[in-house]
Each structure stands twice: as structure tokens, then as C-alpha cells.
Give the backbone structure.
Amino acid sequence: DTGVSQNPRHKITKRGQNVTFRCDPISEHNRLYWYRQTLGQGPEFLTYFQNEAQLEKSRLLSDRFSAERPKGSFSTLEIQRTEQGDSAMYLCASSTHSGRAYEQYFGPGTRLTVT
Amino acid sequence: QKEVEQDPGPLSVPEGAIVSLNCTYSNSAFQYFMWYRQYSRKGPELLMYTYSSGNKEDGRFTAQVDKSSKYISLFIRDSQPSDSATYLCAMSDSYGQNFVFGPGTRLSVLP
């Protein structure tokens, strides 16, 4: 399977714990995006990378959230001191840097439940 | 006013019907317009993309963009029960940045 993969698919954690999610993009794609989606809403942009450089972060992104893409391949998204409001689907997408950067391909998502 | 608006539905149609899904937007910097399909508890799947104004057809799907009215549409012909999903419009600027999604329209095609 050469699509975007995300792990874990589901995560249940207690309030105050830290969680980390992983995304493996399509191999030839050098742009990687993180989104958050809550029930009945479209995906909300969080941050994106071009290769290993984090180029943009949403102004709405709390400083409890941090993302890395150390070698320009896979990426991790960490949420520290989780809150119940962090419960959502976290989606990763990738695209090429070329003129088709608008063609984003999504992974299956990681569903986070904070109890 | 939200940057991208979309009727959330739900929209129920009989099998074989023509479905019309629409989005309006406010940011004139948007140049690329995409439609995604999302099945329950899955990630969005890219259906079609269009640059600037005009029409694009792919099989049973037709995307239309009217930049003067800031209005985009997706038409599905001969709808099938397998088309039942949430349809999300998305838009970006000319650099593929400032990617914004609508809230999605939930579609049910009844056999």
C-alpha cells in the first residue's frame, strides 16, 4: 500500500497525559500536513512541513501541540497535557511541492479520545 | 462569516438521481477548488480539483467554479448507494497554501 499511513488508529488517554501520533506520507511527497476534525466539521488546518521545515502553524494551535518531521519523511504530532477538548480525529495529508501542491492525499486518521 | 460555507444536509435522494452540492466562499485569493468524499470514520478522499473558473468532468462527477459569484458546485449523475458519504469542498491559494475546508454535506442515496 503506497498511501498515507497513520498510527495508531485509535488512542484513548486520560486528561493530563501526553500522546504522540505518527504519519508516514506517500514516499515522493515532500509536503506534509496535519489537520484536526471534530464531528460534523471539515478538517481544520494545524501545521505543514515542506521536507523537514515546518513552514506554517495555525494561530489556533495551542503551544501544547508540537510537530516534527526530522528527516523529511515521517512526521510526529505530540499533544502535551491533553484536555477533553482535544478529543478529535487527527488527520495527516501529503502532497508534492510542484504545481500540484493543492492535491492533498489523506491518511485514515488517528481518533483521540480524552477521558 | 465563515471563510467557506456549505449546507450540512443531510441530503437524501433516490438511487439514479442527479445530486447537486454547493459551497460559497469569501476569500478572493482562492484559486484551487477541490472536492473530497469522506466515508464514516475514514480520511477524506480527493475526488476532483479545478483551477480558477470553469467546469471539469470525470465520469459521473462534474465540478463547476464561478469565481465571480464565489460559488462552486459538484454534480453527481446517476447517483448510487455507494455515493452515500460526506462531501467536503476545499480551497487554497495559488501556492497550495491557506487550505480551507467547508464543514461538509452528508449525502444519503437510497436504493
